[in-house]
């Protein structure tokens, strides 16, 4: 849906960049899968490199989260397309945070190792699919419509 006007090539590229945040955050959930299928680690090598830098900087997630929200989403001088995609990436990041709490709770159950691995892999694959879909739509100049998430984004971004 491109009803807010046409998008330039630079807008499309800048709209894809915020999706690095949920991808980097999701790597923690994908470690089981990446260990069992080493060729996938080659595919995700750039994200793994970013993840290693991300883990070394204390509070990097919080800093990036608030910087994106305050400097991009709330800045009406930036195109709606970029702000929409940035807010959608932020909401995906919030979902990852909530799933992190869920996996911590499941981890309290004795002998819940297999359940945690299954849950983590499912979360990782879900985020990868959502990000891939959003990036492809953004590069095409269309709004990525993810059920429930996009509705919340439309409420936040005017």
UniProtKB/TrEMBL annotation:
Belongs to the Tic20 family. It is found in: Membrane. The chain crosses the membrane at residues 12-34, 40-72, 84-102, 114-136. Coiled coil: none annotated. It holds the Pfam family TIC20. It comes from Nostoc linckia FACHB-391. This is Tic20 family protein. Keywords: Membrane, Transmembrane, Transmembrane helix. It is a multi-pass membrane protein.
């Amino acid at each position: 849906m491109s009803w807010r006007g046409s998008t330039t090539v630079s807008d499309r590229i800048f709209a894809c960049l915020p999706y690095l945040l949920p991808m980097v955050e999701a790597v923690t959930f994908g470690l089981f899968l990446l260990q069992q299928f080493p060729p996938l680690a080659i595919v995700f090598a750039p994200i793994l490199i970013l993840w290693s830098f991300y883990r070394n900087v204390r509070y990097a997630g919080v800093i990036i989260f608030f910087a994106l929200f305050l400097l991009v989403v709330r800045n009406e001088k930036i195109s709606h397309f970029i702000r929409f995609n940035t807010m959608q990436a932020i909401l995906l990041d919030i979902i990852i945070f909530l799933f992190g709490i869920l996996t911590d709770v499941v981890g309290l159950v004795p002998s819940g190792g297999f359940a945690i691995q299954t849950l983590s892999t499912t979360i990782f694959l879900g985020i990868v699919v959502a990000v891939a879909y959003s990036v492809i739509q953004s590069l095409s100049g269309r709004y990525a419509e993810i059920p429930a998430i996009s509705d919340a984004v439309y409420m936040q971004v005017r």
